[in-house]
């Protein structure tokens, strides 16, 4: 499968992409725990069907010490017992923030309060930015049919 469009070869998307990369690095450097960052990025990418990002975040999480068991259970986190309450709140926020158009309840006050029990304002801001960033990245890859899933090497874009 070939990409429909090489976004980096266009002036407009190339400029915008540089800003997106900078935003992604800012979120990755935030005080949000690295494990939570990778789990959330992976879950959003699973929901959106972005194979490139599923590949990337699975490999980055493994390289950072995440276990295969936990990574294999991210898609079924509600039924899994391997996630902390903080991670569960972040995963639920990620799902609800991603599935807005699917008729999901969105991020209601109850979920926000649960997340705020585990994360301070700086971490919550990073979590919101991460969910939003991942949705943008996923959509760019899915729409243009970026075909390089499987080729990513952990830490490649650091």
Automatic annotation (TrEMBL):
Residues 23-95 form the Carboxymuconolactone decarboxylase-like domain. This is Carboxymuconolactone decarboxylase family protein. It comes from Streptomyces thermocoprophilus.
């Amino acid at each position: 499968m070939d990409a429909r469009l090489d976004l980096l070869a266009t002036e407009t998307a190339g400029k915008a992409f540089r800003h997106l990369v900078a935003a992604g690095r800012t979120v990755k450097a935030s005080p949000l725990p690295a494990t939570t960052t990778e789990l959330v990025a992976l879950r959003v990418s699973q929901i959106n069907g972005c194979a490139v990002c599923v590949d990337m975040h699975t490999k980055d999480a493994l390289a950072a010490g995440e276990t295969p068991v936990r990574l294999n259970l991210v898609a079924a986190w509600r039924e899994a017992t391997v996630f902390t309450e903080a991670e569960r709140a972040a995963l639920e926020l990620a799902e609800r923030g991603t599935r807005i158009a699917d008729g999901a309840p969105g991020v209601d006050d109850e979920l926000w309060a649960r997340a705020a029990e585990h994360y301070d304002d700086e971490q919550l801001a990073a979590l919101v930015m991460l969910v939003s960033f991942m949705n943008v990245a996923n959509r760019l890859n899915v729409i243009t049919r970026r075909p390089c899933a499987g080729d990513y090497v952990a830490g490649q874009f650091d």
